[in-house]
What we know:
Elements: H1 6-19, H2 24-42, E1 48-53, H3 57-71, E2 75-80, H4 89-98, E3 105-107, H5 113-118, E4 125-129, H6 143-153, E5 157-160, E6 182-186, H7 191-194, E7 204-208, H8 214-218, E8 224-226, H9 229-235, E9 251-255, H10 262-274, E10 279-285, H11 286-295, E11 300-304, H12 314-321, E12 326-329, H13 337-346, E13 354-356, H14 359-366, E14 378-380, H15 384-391, H16 400-411, E15 414-417, E16 423-425, E17 431-433, H17 446-459, H18 464-486, H19 493-498
Parallel strand pairs: 1-2, 1-4, 2-3, 4-5, 5-6, 6-7, 8-17, 9-10, 9-12, 10-11, 12-13, 13-14, 14-15
Antiparallel strand pairs: 15-16, 16-17
Helix pairs in contact: 2-3, 3-4, 9-18, 10-11, 10-17, 14-15, 15-16, 17-18
Amino acid sequence: MRLANAHQIREADRIQINERNYPSLILMENAALRMAQSILRDYPDQKAFGILVGPGNNGGDGLVIARQLHQAGREIQILLSHEPARFEGDARINYEIIGEMPIPITLYKQEPLQVWLDSFSTSPLLIDGLLGTGIQSALRDPVSGLLDELRKSNPRILAIDLPSGLDASTGEAINTPLRAEKTYTFQLPKVCHFVTPASLFCGDVEVIDIGLWPDVIASLDIKRAVLTQAYVDQQMKQVRHTAAHKGDFGHVLVVGGSRNMTGAISLTIQAALRAGGGLVTSLVPTTCRDTVLHHAPEAMCVDVPGDYLGKQAVEVFDHHLKGKGAVVIGPGMGQEMATVDFLREILPMVQVPLLLDADALNILSQHQELWASLPDATVLTPHPGEMRRLLEVETVNQRRLEAAERLAQDKAVTVVLKGAGTIIAGASGQTYVNTTGNPGMAKGGSGDVLSGIIGSLLGQGYGIEEAAGLGVFLHGRAGDAAADLLGQARMTASDIIHHL
Length: 500
C-alpha cells in the first residue's frame, strides 16, 4: 500500500481534475459520502455529531459529511472556525447547500465553546474538518485557540483525512492536534498516519477510495509504502520441496558476544534458526560458548579464547566465512579496542549480504573509515540512539523517516530504524513503514531477535530489501501473537522467537 506525501496527493487531484476533466466537486462529494457511510457503519448507535469546519477543502468535506449524516437522521451541529466569507470554490458551494438545510451553524467565539457542546441533546462525537494536508508550520488563531479549548474537554474525535495540525508529509508533530480515535483518509494513506510521533494522534486509520483513477496514482511513482500481509504473501518463498535438505535453506554466520553479554548473541542465533534457516554457525569468545550451546544446540558454535572477540578471531572468521550465505555481526560484541581492530580486519573479507547491529553500529559510528569496507549488500538495524550516533545528530525522533532515508542514500545501505512503525529504507530509494508489533516488544533482546530473523532470510536467498521488510513484519507479527497469549507486560524477547 503506497504511502503519499502532501505534494503527491495534491498532484493526483490536479491530474484527475485538470488532465482527466473530472469535476472537483464530484471528488469532494465522493470522499465525504463514503466517509459518512463508513461513520454510520462504525458508529451505528451514535445519535449526535458535531462537525468542526475550517475554511478550506477539508472543511468542505466536513460540510458534505454534515449533510449526509443529517439525511441519515442524526442530530448535526456545525462549528465554523472562520467567517463564512472565507469559503471558496467547492467548499463555498457546499456551504450554500447547507444553508438551505435545518442544521445549526455556530461561529467559534460567537458563543463559549462549552455552551455549544452542551447544546446537543446527547453527548456528541466530533468530526475534525478544520485543516487538511496543506499545514507545514505552527497553527495560528482561531484554529490553535479552538484546539486548545477542545483538548480541555477531552472529546471523542474522528478526523477527516488527518487530525488538524499534522504535517501530512512527515512523522513530525509540529502542532499538538486533537487525538482522534479514528482517521478516515482519502485514496492513499499519508506519511503522518504511520510514522511516529504524528501517527500517535491518528488512532485507527481507514483508507477510503474516492475515485482517483489507478493510472493517476501510478503516474506519481511513489517510493514509500506500508508493509502489509499482502506484501508478505507476495514475497515469501512458501514451497519446501519433499527432497529438500538443510543446505537448500541457507547458512548464516552469526558473530558477536562478550563476557557480560552472552544473552544477546544467543537470542540472535535462536531467531535465525526459528526463521527458517537451514544452518547457523556462531563465532563467539569462549566465555559465551556454554550459554550458546545451552540455548541453541541446533547451531554450530565456533569459539576463540577470551572474553571478547579480538585479533585472535580474524583467521577463524576468515576460515568459517567460506560457504556462508549471509553474516550477522554485532549482538553483545562489546566495543573493546581489540574488537574494533577485529571488525576493521574482517569487514573487507565479507562479500555476501551483511547485517550490522548493536555494538557493530556503535563502532561504525566512531570509526568512519569502516564505511568504505562494507559490502554492497549491507543492512544496518539501529535503534534511535544508535541512529543518532550514525548520523551525528542530536535526535532523530521527530523526523525518523527522513533520517533513515538520508543514511540509506548517503551510505548506499539498507537501514532498519527500529521503533513503533519501524522504517526500512533501501539504497534503491524504496522505503517501507511497518504496521505490526506492540509496546510489549520494548524489552531487552527484541532487537537481537530481529537481527537473527533478517540474517536468516538473507541466508535463504531473499534480496536485501525484501529480507529486511519481511523480517521486520514477521518479527512484529510474532510479537503480536506473543502479546495475545501472554500480555504485553509479561512477554519477553524469547517469546517472539517461540511465536515465529
